[in-house]
Design goal:
Layout: H1 2-14, H2 16-38, H3 40-43, H4 47-73
Helix pairs in contact: 1-4, 2-4
Transmembrane segments: 6-29, 50-73
Membrane topology: Multi-pass membrane protein
Pfam families: ATP-synt_C
């Protein structure tokens, strides 16, 4: 019984990576929008960096979710 409770606690802690990913994605897009409004001419050249940052941040969240699922069902 205690082992099952520990599994749920561990999976919940692993899901905190999703919280960090959400904050990171919001920060990335917010800063991009702020910079694009200040200098619209440079916005197009930074779009690749925006998408790369988004992909890496989202991958971090997905890895956390994968770990949580492995703890629960592995």
């Amino acid at each position: 019984m205690e082992a099952e409770a520990a599994k749920y606690i561990g999976a919940g802690l692993a899901c905190t990576a999703l919280l960090g990913a959400g904050i990171g994605i919001g920060n990335i897009f917010g800063q991009y929008l702020s910079a694009a409004l200040r200098n619209p001419a440079a916005a197009a050249s930074q779009r690749t960096n925006l998408l790369l940052g988004f992909a890496l941040t989202e991958a971090t969240g997905l890895f956390g979710l994968l770990i949580a699922l492995l703890i629960l069902f592995g």
